[in-house]
Amino acid sequence: MHEFDLSSAVVTTVTKHAAGRQVQHVTLRIGRLRQVVLRTLEFYFAIVGKDTVCEGATLEIIDVPAVLRCNTCKNEWEIEIPAFICGTCGPGAVEVATGEEFMVESIEVEDEENAACTAPR
Fold first, then answer.
1. Domain containing 14 — which CATH number?
2. Residue 83: which pLDDT band, with cuts at 50, 70 and 90?
3. Is 21 in contact with 54 (CB distance < 8 Å)?
4. pTM attached to this predicted model
């Protein structure tokens, strides 16, 4: 059920930055290591956004793969199941290069003349 809390945080953030303007579209970057059920997040976004500037906004989710990087040889590889071992060097110090993201990438709002206003992507 953490998708409900995440949706609430997204709506709060977007509402703050929309500054009273109706939101048309929201783009999120979510890393696979966040273990977010994307369909559930979309469902709750629609519910939490009701009666706010986010009501009716479309939600686009950029799925960021989990990528590890070996600290020794700098090799990077995408993983499906977390196995924190470098395929080149073997066991050693590795770090997560991508996959832990959860951020609002961009929002699109209407300006005062009802023309779409798009923040740079």
1. 3.30.2320.80
2. low
3. no
4. 0.70
